[in-house]
Amino acid sequence: MPDDLVQRLDATAARLRRSKGWIINDAVRAYLEREDLRPLRDEETQEALAELDAGQVVDGDAVLAWIDSPEMLSLVAEIDELKGAWRALGTLAPERLSALRRGATIESASFRPEIGTGIPAVSQTRG
User: Fold this and answer.
1) Which segments of the chain does DSSP mark as H helices, in order?
2) 43/80 same-domain check
3) Within this chain, do residues 83 and 97 fall inside the same structural domain, yes or no?
4) pLDDT over 90 percentage in the chain
5) What is the pTM of this model?
6) Structural domains in the chain (count)
7) Which contacts of 119-126 are long-range, i.e. CB under 8 A and separated by 24 or more positions?
8) Cβ contact 103:125 at 8 Å
9) Beta-carbon neighbour count of residue 107 at 10 Å?
10) Which one of 7, 42, 48, 78 is at 20 to 30 Å from 94 when CA atoms are compared?
11) How far is the first Cα of the chain from the last one, in angstroms, to the nearest whole number?
């Protein structure tokens, strides 16, 4: 392995507090997953080029009009609202996040038919 990669690997391992082997395994796994998708990506590219050759395209003005449509603006607003909710979770104290996580786990487990009716879980999460 070239010296510059070894140095970067050492620095990354130290920063992440992971072994070099873990980082190498993660990198190889990510590479192989990308490569596994290559045939599908190539096939979809060929299909898209065939559609282009056949004149199956959407006018740029139509795309811009769709982007500015009330439907799209509503979808973007929903996404922004969700992002805001997730960001707000980041400002909660760790003990509050832990309590929420326990409540969500109890709640989700209680609705599994093999566990029960859900009534005990509701009282536990509110109590």
Assistant:
1) 3-16, 20-53, 60-67, 70-89, 94-110, 119-126
2) no
3) no
4) 42
5) 0.42
6) 3
7) none
8) yes
9) 14
10) 78
11) 58
